[in-house]
Amino acid sequence: MPDPASQPQQPLVEPERLDLRSMDIAEARRQELLRLFPEVRTEGGKIDFDRLRLALGEAVDVGRERYGMNWPGKADCFKTIQTPSMGTLRPCPEESVNWDTTENLIIEGDNLEVLKLLQKSCLGKVKMIYIDPPYNTGNDFIYPDNYAESLQTYLEYTGQVDSEGRRFGTNTEADGRFHSRWMNMMYPRLYLARNLLRDDGAVFISIDEAEQANLRHLCDEIFGQENFVADLVWAAGRKNDSKHISVSHEYIVVYARNMEHLKERGIVWRHRKEGLDDIYKAYARLRKEHGNDHAAVQSGLKEWFAGLPDTHPAKAHRHYSCVDARGIYFPADISWPGGGGPKYEVLHPRTGRPVRVPSRGWMTSDPDKMAAWIADDRVHFGEDENSVPCIKSYLSDREDSVPYSVFYQDGRAATKRLRDLLNGDYFENPKDEGVIGKLVEFATEPDSLVVDFFAGSGTTAHAVLDLNKKDGGNRQFILVQLPEPVDPQSAAGKAGFKTIADICKERVRRVINRLDTEDEGRLDLSGNAPRPDRGFRVYSLAESNFKPWQADGPKDGESLGKHMFEHVEHIREGRTEDDLLYEILLKSGFALTTPIETLTLAGRKVYSVAGGALMLCLERPLTLEVIRAIAEKKPERVVCLDAGFVGNDQLKTNAVQTFKTKGVGSFKTV
């Protein structure tokens, strides 16, 4: 059969164009609704709400008066959410630490735009979000005059484009919409943040009494009142700035992405008692030696406990020395607390005879429940029926404890530690990295992704890095911080910091240096153990590397001619190949830390992303040989520069047919 790529004079077939917008939130919601209720689709592919009401039956509230919250600008919040971003995140390797190996990110930019850009790559992947947003005290947050044009406003604010009068300004109490402006700022960001959370994820939001009530109402609407977890009280010591009551606490408002998943899998609330990590390490070693021989593992664990000095923290937990398929347990009391419990017959599983009944009776009055425990191997029996059975109390169940809703921070201590780390007072009122570390420990597994899009001085990254060292975890973080200028006459300005984002990056660098110094000579450098991820990639928000065609622009001859001339070269001046590469990754839904391999195929540079799931060729001109070479790799998706086909429409048609013949699922140009 002739090769379709070699057939001449085929009619022009255009590949798809890569969508350079961030996720279209409204369209995604419409498609999900049509998937759930295909019967509501109209002939034009829209939604018939009358049919939707019929499909939902009595679940639809059609009354005019209903409980809810409204404020000036709320409708515009939804327009903001539904407007895709045309921005990109430009890589800054020179500002990064361990660029080639790290999976951590620090992103400079307006967090609204960044959250939009992360929708495709981080959707449903984040275990925990912690944010410390502006408390709306009257001068603590900058806000765009026209937040519907956030990217344009941001570019003007940072001097990337010429200003047309828009600016960022403080929100003062003299403004007639003081609270409304704050809610207009928060609502879209929380809405987009919710999309990033895993089903078992949670968000932690620091706030004080100025907006705590409004924040609860916002979160009730966005996350659902049923997903409220708790208001944590963060006591920070007595203040002397009030004539009436000295308010000496703040709040951390906690909401789950889906409370039903928390009931099944839980916010981990991981709080290991001292010494338990050593027990787990000993258990892991014994399992490696003896596999599923639980008796041998149990014997080895008892010998390990016996060999510990009395001062060792794990010695206090030596009663956890039994092992079964579930793990480590100790035989706990199975009797009714206080006595007077039921005394029904229970048969020994090996002898078939009734076992001794505890003098206080069984701990459950339901014989069927006891039978279920036995069938599930949760009851520890002796050699025969002459001993009283025990209930198995697993170490994995006892290692987690529910935290109290009130905890304490000495703000002065956190400020002093940051001052010592940076060698100066460069950031006011930093959050305590130890407290944030506890929240991260409570709420994440060791390989979780943590996001903070009001990063400030980088406390969350500091907490994650410290915790990873403490428990050997490999949590990753994504920080987002507006490059808000510091006062040149302040201590930070005089020290050379230009923005808050600069302070954040420097803090995380110094934490990494400190941890590496502490670990000198202790890490396994043989390659047998993974190195801790102590690094971060820096990206900065900018307008797309590709000039968008303004279809709704002026149609007069002069304006149209000028616009066409500008698009002879549709890549912005000064943009690098790496800039293009990472924008295509981002807009294609790949994480910014996805592994990339550089190949040479038919004399052209080709990028292989995620083991060949996506292949990119940014070379021009393209050749039939490189098209065939890429197709032979059989990637799932291919993206090329449209400029690579300039003046060769036949090659473009051949490329479409070649990729189709080789089973490539998607071929797009940009």
Name a few traits of the molecule.
22 helices, 10-stranded mixed sheet, 670 residues, single chain
Structure description:
The longest helix has 19 residues, at 178-196. With 670 residues, the protein is α/β, with parallel strands linked by helices. The protein is built from 22 helices and 22 strands. It is globular. Helix 7 (178-196) runs parallel beside helix 8, helix 10 packs across helix 11 (294-306) and helix 21 (624-632) runs parallel beside helix 22 (649-661). The protein has a ten-stranded mixed sheet, sandwiched between helices. A six-stranded mixed sheet has the order 1-22-21-20-19-18, with helices on both faces. It has a four-stranded antiparallel sheet with strand order 10-11-13-12.
Question: What's this, in brief?
Answer:
It is globular, with a radius of gyration of 30 Å. A hairpin with a 4-residue loop joins strand 19 (604-609) and strand 20 (614-617).
